[in-house]
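[09:14] KT: can someone run the structure on this one? pasting the chain below
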Amino acid sequence: MVNVSRVWQHPAFVKTVGASYDWAMGQEAVARRFGRLVMGADVERVYRAMSVVGEIPDGAAILDVPCGGGIAMLRIRPDQDIRYVGVDVSAPMLQRAQRRIPARLGDRIHLIKASIEGMPFDDGEFDLCVCFNGLHCVPDPAVAVAEIARCLRPGGRVLGEFAVRGQLRRADVYMIALRAVGAFGPSGTRSDAERWFVEAGLVIDTLECTGAILHFDTHRPS
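[09:31] RB: done, structure tokens below
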């Protein structure tokens, strides 16, 4: 299999595939239509889930991994006093996120280049982790989930979504093509995802598919 982490770090790839993805996610109407046509998914649900960022109380720490171009961080409220850390393996994607940071939020958002499978944080450092469109783009999703769980405080929450196999034939074909060029990693099935969360010590609150997109909401026991 093509090394997906290396592919996402290549500037030419990010300027083409990465930029197209980032543009589409920034155009909600486009993303909704694409999600429905290709993945059979309710992408509006993804945007609704991002609103959790603005609901977190002051003093909390939020981890956004992989943060990509920084779409989720735009949900931070102007008066919200939180620490927000975006992590991505791709320097070009982090540059796109950096350009999106509003001046008023500059001291609250920190962007770090790192792999999701080995993040430079202490155990239990974050109250919330958001993980949108990420677990299908890593070489080993089970390791990534375990690493996220390690970084969560007891009672901390991780939610997001990713593309899974075996839900919709046209989506499976699309994912095979992206896997061939290194845009997607191995991903997994809904059952695989359930196992990853449980083995990482997380309690599953929601695990539902719309088309080939799996929406999840889990927490680390207190």
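[09:33] KT: thanks! Residues 11 and 91 are 8 Å apart (CA to CA).
[09:34] RB: yep, looked fine to me
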